[in-house]
Design a protein that fits this description.
With 497 residues, the chain is α+β, with helices and mostly antiparallel strands. A hairpin with a 5-residue loop joins strand 6 and strand 7. Helix 2 runs antiparallel to helix 8. The protein is rod-shaped, with a radius of gyration of 45 Å. The mean pLDDT is 89.
Length: 497
Amino acid sequence: MRIAFSILFILLIAALVVCQSKARRSNKAIGTAVALLIRALIPPVIGNLIIISSTGKSLSTVGCYIYYLGMDFVMYALLEFSLEYCMIPQRRRKACIAVYVLLGVDIVQLLCNPFFGHAFATEPIMAGGAPYYRLIPYAGQTFHRLVDYGILAAVIVIFTVKMIRSPRTTSERYSVILAAMIITAGWETAYIFSRTPVDRAMIGFGVFGLLVYFLALIYRPMRLLDSMLANMASEMPEALFFFDANGQCIWSNRQGIALAGISPDNYEPVADRLREMFGPYEQWSGAQRELSAGGMTRSYALEKHDVTDDRQRLIGSFLSVRDNTAEQETLQQEIYKATHDSLTALYNRAGYDLLLSSLDLKNTYLLLIDADAFKSVNDNYGHEAGDRVLRKIADTIRRNFRAEDCLCRIGGDEFVVFMAHTGEPQRSLIAARVNGINAELSDTADGLPAISVSVGIAYGGDAADPTQLFDRADRALYETKKRGKCGYTFDRSDNMA
């Protein structure tokens, strides 16, 4: 039994040495106090190891001195750690001077024991088939215990007050250490009164040191972290959804709860609800979706991120859903302004270029329309009248073509119409529409001067590129102008009958 405990204490000492070394190198402010406390715990554990493994009186007595003097060092380091860990202000630490004086007096009186024999002696008993020297306490030992237990009681009070005054989310960092101290102290007290051989309570001291290292330097208070993250997430404008590795929702902020239309205590329907709203789970990342409800359409930007552990194994994911309706509306307005003519509301030159890149020209008619003698309108009636005439031309063209046809104003008085998806002969239909436009433009009932347009028409057919198609329409327009304007001409390469 004594050999087994000796091995256990050796392992504890090794663990404490490693932890104090790491604590000393820690960049955390509490690291120095943690290293001091763990370093202080090593001597009494060594002293107890000597007492357990020794079968001679002299070596056992040396172990006792190392043990009891080490306990004074532990109490000093424990008080220093408690003041730092519980963040006690400097102005309240002046009372500690008296405690340090008492520890100094205790150390001196223990060191005088070899001369006066007032503190303790040892007596042999049999334990594990070999002599074991048990403590015989005297007055000096009683004083030593009063000092150490008094300091321990003060530390317990400090941690208790701090735990009570702290929010529930942070109190766990104090309650765990407090519980460990009380258990260790109770274990040691039970050993003292039982007077059994082998101080097993020192296991508690070693474990306490390891626990302090873990809680002070490594452990993150998860309740605090969860609470802070939840509060932060709840204040964010985006709807947030967190999923486990199986794709089941485990938490959502209040914006997400409102968006998904679920109960805050039941996240089970979330995954199915979001798939109904935004499509398959795999397509959420970087997606832009629109939802219509109550006659209104809102736009949402989706961002999905996978979460992996340190081995790059998937442990879950989270989805951010941001309502960017206002941004999309602004973007659409900016795009509209950039691609549309402010006077006629038709596509401008930039819009024309954009259409060229998206239309299937092989099934498209291009009509190049030019106002006849428009300069005379400006010269004789003024630019304001000229603008009204341009708007009239645009409105007339719009009325005479289909909603799916694309209308552009590419210059001052020059217009283009793309008649897309026209795979059948359209000559007669187009001719009728051009004639109808000129008939409307000749009407002066609106107070505007009569005007006419000349039109050049080309069919995409076998056109190699947009430039070629435009050139064909331009040549046809030239033919119309040459014949006297106010009419139309089909490009000769158009073989559509």
